[in-house]
DNA sequence: CGGCCCATTGACAGGCATCAAGTCCGGTGG
DNA sequence: CCACCGGACTTGATGCCTGTCAATGGGCCG
């Protein structure tokens, strides 16, 4: 639609809005456009042949998704929060890629940027233990989350999506959150907001330093014991 | 590819050998070369910070691995079987990419080819049930396996690697194989060889058509019931 | 022939998926 | 402004799956 406008150099991009749950593009559709996320969070969704849904990646402001690595999109892109995005014509994006390729001597980092989340998900769900997976997930995206007024990172993702991303059930995600809440690793001021309060512990659990999950339950509220490790 | 070989006298079509277990390149090393697998099977390996090993992808003859999508290799590449490979200089591979990009109007399919296995692994291990995962895994690679004399596909992969790929334990893989063996879906003439004997059933289980794993045990050897779907 | 590594099998317990019910919250309409 | 409603989250109970440990077997190589 506004591709013509975009072809004029120097023209200021007009970001299009999409409401929560809205579909940006569908898995299997031809890769005619590259979507650049300007604001909000989107998810990549794959539906198995008999209906079970997997969230294969979360995307944030600045990410480019729907790259024409193959003929068709490999996942469906949906808005998680309300988003703003810009659609780039495939051929134009391609020209920019080649130009950047020749100048920098390497591939456009955006290719890496779309593949990295997918790769990271494989690393995360390849580990066993829901709590570990949740912590690894939070660690992997904490840097890209918006910051609340009190300085804590906010996670406006529904738990159903997190469960579909972590290959587990919403109930298990909820229970994992409760454990982390009781450990004061995270706080949940509101239903749809999660604030990371103790990032060091979070990363410790994510990296598997806590060998036995049992230790999580044997939490000692004693201040000295807590700060010991 | 052929262009590369031509422009490098002396290295033309001379494939280098690597024995089973040998390392082609290490995770974190700078992407100086692209490795083209000519023969055999290789694996992509990632080791977590505290030591647990994950096989993130299997690669087969014809695949190009170690693509310079970022500055460093994202995984370690090791030979599973004995392999033959060709090493392409990064800059030369890059030139060929740009050329192919301009001519075909699309990215080199090899980029997709390296990312696809990683993506597929996420899909596979995102499902629950070891038997389902094993069947999905076999389905995803059955087309690329060598064929034995009697026409059955052969899978020369150690079960430890399959377990590390499927994010499960070697014991569970072994038990899943035993179930499939008893169902006459696969056969294992030798320790390191797996022949797919009933591909339709394999794909049925992989796609989740069998809703309850329980049904697998209640196998009906009746011919009519078997061929029903 | 002996040693080593991998595959196999059994026993066991713990984690987690599942089902079910209850609670909270935002949005809608009166 | 308030009541209602629907969806998401929460929590509990239960059984299965599977990870873990341990021991055995089997094949390959030195």
Automatic annotation (TrEMBL), chains A, B:
It comes from the Bacteria. SUPFAM superfamilies: cAMP-binding domain-like (SSF51206), Winged helix' DNA-binding domain (SSF46785). Residues 128-200 form the HTH crp-type domain. The keyword DNA-binding applies. Keywords: DNA-binding, Transcription, Transcription regulation. InterPro entries: cNMP-bd_dom, cNMP-bd_dom_sf, HTH_CRP, RmlC-like_jellyroll, WH-like_DNA-bd_sf, WH_DNA-bd_sf. This is Crp/Fnr family transcriptional regulator. It comes from Novosphingobium album (ex Liu et al. 2023).
